[in-house]
């Protein structure tokens, strides 16, 4: 680090005697701005990618919930139909048992 400061001081002092590109102190803020801009763009890109991924996942989850809801409704309808068929079969059995009992008593 100390060597870097020494190098910077030497370049600054010698820049007056030679025609050189813009002095180093002007370049440093530009370099820092470039680093900040690049980092900021990366962060914005990551945020955009994260938001896109969240949107895709929420859509996928919504589709899955709709499919599961349809399966549940279909399952309930099948269960209801099955229960009504069981009830009808039970009523038929009871009716036939009652009829047999009436015939045996009468």
UniProtKB/TrEMBL annotation:
First and last residue of the signal peptide: 1-19
Quote the InterPro entries the UniProt record gives.
Answer: Glucagon_GIP_secretin_VIP, VIP/GHRH-like
- Cellular component terms per the entry's GO annotation: extracellular space; perikaryon; terminal bouton
| Record has Magnesium as a keyword | no
Give GO terms for biological process. adenohypophysis development; adenylate cyclase-activating G protein-coupled receptor signaling pathway; growth hormone secretion; multicellular organism growth; positive regulation of cell population proliferation; positive regulation of growth hormone secretion; positive regulation of multicellular organism growth; regulation of protein localization
User: Where in or outside the cell?
Assistant: Secreted
Q: Which keywords does the record carry?
A: Secreted, Signal
Q: Which residues form the Glucagon / GIP / secretin / VIP family domain?
A: 31-53
Which Gene Ontology MF annotations are present?
Answer: growth hormone-releasing hormone activity; growth hormone-releasing hormone receptor binding; neuropeptide hormone activity; peptide hormone receptor binding
Task: Give the UniProt family note.
Answer: Belongs to the glucagon family.
Q: What does this protein do?
A: GRF is released by the hypothalamus and acts on the adenohypophyse to stimulate the secretion of growth hormone.
Query: What is the designated name of this protein?
Result: Somatoliberin
Q: Species lineage, top-down? A: Eukaryota, Metazoa, Chordata, Craniata, Vertebrata
């Amino acid at each position: 680090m100390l060597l870097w400061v020494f190098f910077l001081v030497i370049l600054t002092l010698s820049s007056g005697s030679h025609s050189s590109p813009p002095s180093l102190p002007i370049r440093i803020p530009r370099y820092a701005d470039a680093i900040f801009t690049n980092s900021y763009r990366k962060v914005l890109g990551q945020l955009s990618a994260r938001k896109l991924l969240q949107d895709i996942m929420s859509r996928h989850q919504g589709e899955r919930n709709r499919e599961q809801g349809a399966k549940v409704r279909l399952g309930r309808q099948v269960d209801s139909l099955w229960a009504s068929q069981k009830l009808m079969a039970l009523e038929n059995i009871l009716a036939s048992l009652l009829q047999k009992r009436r015939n045996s008593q009468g």
